[in-house]
Amino acid sequence: MEKLRETIGKIESVDGTFEEKTQNRLDSLTKPQGSLGRLEELAKQIVEITGNEMPKLDRKVIFTLAGDHGVASSGVSAYPKEVTPQMVYNFLAGGAGINVLAKHVGAEVVVADLGVACDLKAHPDLIIKKVNYGTKNIAEGAAMTKEEAVKSIENGIGVFEEKFRALGGIDIAGTGEMGIANTTPSSAIVSVITGKEVNMVTGRGTGIDDARLQLKIKTIEKAIQINKPDPDDALDVLSKIGGFEIGGLVGIILAASSLRVPIVIDGFISSAAALVAYKLEPKTRDYMISAHFSVERGHAAIFDYLGLKPLLDLNLRLGEGTGAALAIGVAEAAVKILTQMATFDDAGVSKKQN
Amino acid sequence: MEKLRETIGKIESVDGTFEEKTQNRLDSLTKPQGSLGRLEELAKQIVEITGNEMPKLDRKVIFTLAGDHGVASSGVSAYPKEVTPQMVYNFLAGGAGINVLAKHVGAEVVVADLGVACDLKAHPDLIIKKVNYGTKNIAEGAAMTKEEAVKSIENGIGVFEEKFRALGGIDIAGTGEMGIANTTPSSAIVSVITGKEVNMVTGRGTGIDDARLQLKIKTIEKAIQINKPDPDDALDVLSKIGGFEIGGLVGIILAASSLRVPIVIDGFISSAAALVAYKLEPKTRDYMISAHFSVERGHAAIFDYLGLKPLLDLNLRLGEGTGAALAIGVAEAAVKILTQMATFDDAGVSKKQN
């Protein structure tokens, strides 16, 4: 608990110190004012977060955390839970969607086991931060103990801080996850924290049919009814209806915020983790960049609650950090606009007349 | 006229030859089927266009064409027309938004003068294909002669074909433009071809105030009233209320389609050119990828007419090809998903159960 308290304590407000200066620079560049829209907003946000007036996004890292879910045994997913470790090996071999997209934008993928249900084969790039061998079935009781919830967050903080130290800093980070059935606890978290009804925030995950979707909704309703998580106690929510990789992502978001690193939130599951991080410390929101609007039902409820606006809308629903990777590419473009374009004076271009 | 007819004659239908095979490959990759949404659609479109089952987007080119507009003297823009040549020099010096974003995605920028109102200083990278020294004021008569309209298109075809030959092929191309006041002829074209009222398809361009916007709308209404362009005769529309760089972009789109090169359509002005290209040969639509949803009012009318769905929505309104550059980055990501991800069999990952 000490590590968690300490990390939260270090998170500062993003206070707009550089706002005027950055706006002036953007307006001095050879383009009509504001004509690069969200790229300009992104550049301003990244300057404020990093405190660097001319940022460079060289060290880009996506944290893809894995965990299993007891609720998978209730039949809420289209895939067997063996897929969780299989996909971890796929990440380590470089064959998954996140590997391809991260490489495309020049980002490194950090893979960590927060709670896969089996012992994974050792691999030089695999970080083992296992809290337990999968959560318990939330439809039958709490997913984990309160101590395990804290540990999952602190393990996530540890993963981030170790990478930060190893690279001597991180310029931008993204969240990602793998865990068969993890849209189920995510929808449960979103329903409890935003107060929306379960059927309004529960979708088809990897692609389940109507019958399975109804079962999933009933399972989540039961999980909430049995566990009675307190919406105002983020640790209670995480421990009763969460997941180990979700807790780990809460830690990634807290650690990034405490170290003033822009954190790109991937899709639905990552956004559920962002909700928990926000409930623990609302200042984290200023460090978040929402990558994309997932196909998964319920994503909009999170954006409304957090006041975030997703950057992309490409009908993605893969997770792993794939949307975050694409958004990191856009964020780097935004920063390059700020730092590499010529000014009106440099280029000898006439300014606006009215 | 011969070159134009010949190019149009070479444009083939995109007939779905590879559809099943590409879909099978996408479904064999380690991800839930369809979970990469628009990336998968893009990959399929690029395979169909190129006829290459495993495409690589190495040779990426953005064609940024410049031209001046007589209607600028009616006070429809916030910038003086001197900015057109100034920005051309900025493109050549590498300081503009398009230079920064093209470099970010590994694309080359080809800059061509289709009708700037002055003689530009020679530069090794500047292509001179000037049709005339700016168009005439469309509020007073035709922008150009029918012969000039044909020449502007054929010059655009020439710019594309020469680059295609020089590189030994182009894997993906984007459109871009520079021309003070060019949203005015673009709105006129969109109104005439889509049948929408002028005030529904006329926006603030580089950022004009309310008074200037009203003047702009009245100017366009007058231009249409005086010239009476025939909506079903694309050359009539282009010559009476178009522009030289717009005609050049029509040529770029026709040439790309004739050579089976995916063509990424940038913002509002490029999309107006896409409308003209489509009226000349509807098959061109299959080669088009719409980059983004511009802030400029009237862009939606073009998408509705062409049945295209923009890829990005980032509140951009700069033009130059900046949105096309970002979209080319996404298109390359899409192709890498298709060609670089591991299959379920390769990775030993279990498939879906239901």
Largest sheet of chain A: 6 strands, parallel
Approximately how much beta-strand content do the residues of chain A carry?
5-15%
Low-confidence stretches of chain A: none
Radius of gyration of chain A: 20 Å
CATH topological fold name of the largest domain in chain A: Rossmann fold
Summarize the structure.
By secondary structure, chain A is an alpha/beta fold.
Structural summary, described in words:
2 copies of one chain form a homodimer. Chain A has 354 residues and is of the alpha/beta class. The first copy, chain A, folds into 2 domains: 62 residues, 5,6-Dimethylbenzimidazole Phosphoribosyltransferase, Chain: A, domain 1 (Orthogonal Bundle), CATH 1.10.1610; 271 residues, Nicotinate-nucleotide-dimethylbenzimidazole phosphoribosyltransferase (CobT), large domain (Rossmann fold). Chain A is built from 14 helices and 6 strands. The first copy, chain A, has a 6-stranded parallel sheet, with helices on both faces. In chain A, strand 5, helix 11 and strand 6 form a beta-alpha-beta unit. In chain A, helix 6 packs across helix 10, helix 7 packs antiparallel against helix 9 and helix 7 crosses helix 11. The model of chain A has no long low-confidence stretch (mean pLDDT 97). At the A-B interface, helix 3, helix 4, helix 5 and helix 13 of A face helix 3, helix 4, helix 5 and helix 13 of B.
Structure characteristics:
354 residues, homodimer, 14 helices, 9% strand, 5,6-Dimethylbenzimidazole Phosphoribosyltransferase, Chain: A, domain 1
Secondary structure elements and pairings:
2 copies of one chain form a homodimer.
Chain A: H1 2-10, H2 19-28, H3 37-50, E1 60-67, H4 83-93, H5 97-104, E2 108-115, E3 126-128, H6 146-167, E4 172-178, H7 183-194, H8 210-227, H9 234-241, H10 244-258, E5 263-265, H11 268-280, E6 288-290, H12 299-306, H13 322-340, H14 344-347
Parallel strand pairs in A: 1-2, 1-4, 2-3, 4-5, 5-6
Helix pairs in contact in A: 1-10, 2-3, 3-13, 5-13, 6-9, 6-10, 7-8, 7-9, 7-11, 9-11, 10-11, 11-12
